[in-house]
Amino acid sequence: MAVFVIDRRQAPLMPCSEKRARLLLARGRARVHRLIPFTIRLIDREVAQSELQPLELKIDPGSKTSGLALVRNNDTVNAETGKITATAHVLNLFELIHRGFQISHTLTARRQMRRRRRSANLRYRAPRFLNRKNKGEGWLAPSLQHRIDTTLSWVARIRNVAPITHLAQELVRFDMQQLENPEIAGVEYQQGELAGYEVREYLLEKWHRQCAYCDVSEVPLQIEHIHPKARGGSNRVSNLTLACAPCNLKKAAQDITQFLAKDPKRLTKIQAQAKRPLRDAAAVNATRWKLLNALKATGLPVRTGSGGLTKCNRSRLVIPKTHALDAVCVGEVDFVEHWQKPTLVIKATGRGSYQRTRLNRFGFPRGYLTRQKNIHGFQTGDMVKAIVTQGKKVGAYIGRVAVRASGSFNIQTAEGLVQGISHRYCTLIQRSDGYGYSTRIDSF
Predict the structure, then answer these.
(1) Looking at the whole model, is its pTM more than 0.90?
(2) 3 Cβ partners below 8 Å, 6+ apart?
(3) Which residues constitute the domain of residue 283?
């Protein structure tokens, strides 16, 4: 991976190789500015003394994971034909894992807790139904807005350490009707899946008037959610099936993968018949234009490419499919060089919680958390290095720390969780910034 370089005034310079970064650090010409992504700061050079080349940051937005690729473009002109050949030299690959669905589940839990307070004999809090002022034109749900904000945040972070001159985004649109029915055409686009049916009659024909879990027929059948509504399941027809009363009662609020764990054949059959979920495609469709407009607001030129063009480039150049490599293939690309690189996986973890208790499965407190987040100069999520010199846990550990009021911390390392490390052995490497980092090396 290329190493980011900034000058002594923290202006971005051209990234360098790992070997050159080691030489600059060994000769005292640079200092370590940040550990992840690794950035060095030169102490004897400014941006005016350096020659910069055009860099492009390419983005492949996704519902759960977005791919980012930093490339150096090299356009050459054929003297005979005058044709321009675009070659992308890959410098760094990133995969940004969003937490949109986690945000959605958290808001659902908060809503349920507030509703309980209104029905229980507790301090009353009036419902806020139509008095919200934030849902204006162009408003997005927090789980969707998070995807845009996180992507823009990393675009700004990379711009701070690399002289980016262009941006590129894959502007993809998913056809929901085509995803549900690949053979749909003509006037059928104007009709829904339930055209000419009531929901119950449609389900009876779809599931052959028998229970999906035990195949019993000629008994009263109940409408059942494949993915339980209590766990975020929707009322879409693709999430509904039919079940007899005993099976419906036995399944309760279990997910179908848990309920049919001992019958994988039936599980595969039900999932295939129920059709694929469309929430990922809907999330991308809802955020694509807002992300594009936000990228244009940065003032940099923004190029767009379709999903079909990305797939064509990847197939033509024989490049494996990953989120980061999809970003490399966005837009007009003739050749790609040095794409076999490790990928920095960035997972959005959030910056903690205001919740002061841990709850059991009945909703009652089972433990209380400290109100003080900073313990002996450390807080949960910090990257630390612990060198233990005595006791049962002698050794060196590097990872993310989880603090305790007692001063005995837990460290999550690449090998696993290490518990009971005293704060006296810990040295801070990098402050928590709401993200977790890991490096993935793909074997191509």
Answers:
(1) no
(2) 15, 16, 17, 18, 20, 21, 38, 39, 40
(3) 54-119+141-176+278-348
